[in-house]
Amino acid sequence: MSTIEQVALLAKVSVATVSRVVNNSAKVSDDTKQRVLNAIEKLNYQPNAFGTFLRKINSNMVLILIHSVDNPFFSQIVQGIEKVAHEHDYNILIGNTYGDLEREQRYIKMLKNHLLDGIVLISNTLDKSSLSQLHSSYPIVQVVEYIPDSNTSYFSIDFYKASLELMEAIIARKHKKIAFIHTGSSCIISATEKFRAYQDALTKHGLPIITNTIEEHLFGYASARYLTRKVLSEHPDVTGFFTTSDLLAVGVIEELRNKGFNVNQDVFVTGFDNTIFSSISKPSFMTVDLDSFKLGMNAMQHLIDRIKNPEEKEAVASLQEYTLITNK
Amino acid sequence: MSTIEQVALLAKVSVATVSRVVNNSAKVSDDTKQRVLNAIEKLNYQPNAFGTFLRKINSNMVLILIHSVDNPFFSQIVQGIEKVAHEHDYNILIGNTYGDLEREQRYIKMLKNHLLDGIVLISNTLDKSSLSQLHSSYPIVQVVEYIPDSNTSYFSIDFYKASLELMEAIIARKHKKIAFIHTGSSCIISATEKFRAYQDALTKHGLPIITNTIEEHLFGYASARYLTRKVLSEHPDVTGFFTTSDLLAVGVIEELRNKGFNVNQDVFVTGFDNTIFSSISKPSFMTVDLDSFKLGMNAMQHLIDRIKNPEEKEAVASLQEYTLITNK
DNA sequence: TTGTAGGCGTTATCAA
DNA sequence: TTGATAACGCCTACAA
Fold first, then answer.
1. Is the pTM of this model over 0.90?
2. Do B266 and B294 meet the contact criterion of CB atoms below 8 Å apart?
3. β-strand A323-326 against A317-320: which pairing, if any?
4. Cα torsion angle, A273, A279, A285, A291, sign
5. Of A245, A327, A280, which Cα lies nearest the Cα of B279?
6. pLDDT digits (tens, 9 = 90+) for B73-118
7. Cys bridge to B246: A314, B104, B277, B325, which one at CB 3.0-4.6 A?
8. How far is the CA of B13 from the C1' of D11 (A)?
9. DSSP symbol at B260
């Protein structure tokens, strides 16, 4: 690794001049500039970012913390974030946490060590007080998933309201026995709100709650099929399925068709997030579109505001519009 | 932001002692240690990584460059990489390039600026000579997609051989007219090798090549459906479909079923990569499983070797086993 | 056990 | 237009 000093030596100039050439930060006469450029070329010199950042204070790097890269739902959010980031000259990095606190802490340490200017949490594992504390000292923002009353800004939708609407849609189709199908963490806000709406809608209409279907499973598709079999064996008269994600809906539908049900006729299934899975599913099902691109943009914009204006600590809570749709 | 000096001042010790406490690097008497810890606590001190790294030379950060987070195929590779990285105490970051050279260059700049210890390229946009040059100065490795003869290590499978086997499977089922369905970049190695195998297999068996179906489209599923319609209108007697990815296969199948074909009976479709799409597809189709977890592990291991042993420049080319499977 | 001081590679200020 | 030089925050001989 060559340093600015070696370049200066070879070009017979001072390090200051080399720096000026590299950053185009001040006028340098044409022939000294050429000498410097030649030296840079010859030594294959590349400035060491740590030296630079040590002076500059900030790195212009922002990290997105997601559960795992394989959730198709994150793609649009990430693109929204990247759009705004790009416009403001921030570099975006992504880290997988797999819901593992230790991994998450490793990334958060990069923030605390001033290696990152900020973090966008798409799903986080920290508890309320750790999060709140982090927010009080560093620029962070939550998107989609968030911890309520954690004193930390978030951009999401009203999962409760959207779920109520889905439930009303199912009930309007005269289904009396409706099951709740969910896999994965049940303590994230989207899951708790969905379940709350599920219960409230049924209670309001005097319908039974079929709660024994909440389980923790890793592979969404397979466990959705398993849960469907389980529900049907315990409650053969169930005809409505409220699932918490599109992939689950696909699994439920497949299992129902296997059993000879005519989906959308005898039985009705809803998904969530409007991912590729709801586009390719035959038959189609009702799902919720979040405009996650916009969520990502807004969150990133907010994060940048915080980075540029660190004294402003007040948490912002924004719940954006969504739409119920059925693809094709 | 508080510095080591402020901590030293408050604790009435030297910065050296603070450093020793922070890094547990040498014996410090219990009560000075306590004083230092108190000061750290009070000032909410976190060491600045730039100062540290400036001394340490390397950052223990490795970047994975992928096309986009929404390709389900990358998930296993990333997990393989992360497993090995974790074991060797490297931090993994991910960057989306979207096939955009400028974005890719921004990330590569981080490598050149010594911010990163190495890069894993899952898909890259650089041309052969740039890549080769990069490899000669920095630790990089290619996984799955690679540029042949670029003097850069890669870990992948023999796409040509796998595709030949798929073609033989189609032909063995008595299909005489077989179309090639592909969207996205056609200059990546996986695409060229698949197409070469497609042609060679047909030639070998004296069957016609139906080439006019290669087009560039963004959304795999929709364009697969479009291409299928196009093929069928131009060549109504086509009964075999060799597609370059599982999502394309799903699109082709949907279109075929729409047209009243009995898939796996009248017509036969193959996919590639054994992603979630091949698991959920009904009917099922034949696809290729790459053991991408292992590919990721091997690539990362190689990268670490290079990071630790930078003089070793010889490129390693490894083509790993794969399996043809039909889910369920 | 603790402190002093030099250096990691860069940028920015001040003179020349 | 150019050059010395003092930071930036940290670590580590070396000394005490």
1. yes
2. no
3. unpaired
4. positive
5. A280
6. 999 999 999 999 999 999 999 999 999 999 999 999 999 999 999 9
7. B277
8. 16
9. T
